[in-house]
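lol forgot to send this yesterday, sorry. struct tokens for the thing we talked abt
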């Protein structure tokens, strides 16, 4: 049987796998969803997140651990607040400490 999930649905399912207190980069979510080339699609999908209560898009940051300035649900400060509420720490430059909080630590070095 052919897989009928859309790209966005695959991305949303991947984002749901990021546990509380962890983050993933756009590229990592793309790989989790099945195609490393979908990093840009990840950003678009998260911006259109139909259910922020169950799809924790705030747990996706760029590869340097930076939050999005255009976070769709309240700006970068809101994304940081949500991550901090999850227990995620930031360094002195305002970046997530990827070595500690990345869902795939070996890929965040």
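and heres what i got for the seq, position by position
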């Amino acid at each position: 049987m052919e897989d009928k999930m859309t790209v966005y649905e695959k991305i949303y399912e991947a984002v749901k796998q990021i546990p509380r207190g962890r983050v993933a980069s756009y590229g990592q979510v793309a790989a989790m969803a099945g195609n490393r080339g979908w990093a840009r699609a990840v950003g678009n999908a998260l911006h259109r997140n139909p259910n922020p209560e169950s799809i924790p898009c705030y747990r996706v940051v760029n590869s340097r651990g930076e939050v999005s300035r255009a976070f769709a649900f309240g700006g970068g400060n809101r994304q940081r607040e949500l991550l901090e509420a999850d227990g995620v720490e930031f360094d002195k430059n305002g970046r997530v400490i990827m070595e500690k909080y990345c869902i795939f630590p070996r890929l965040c070095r």
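The chain has a mean pLDDT of 89. anyway ping me if u want another try
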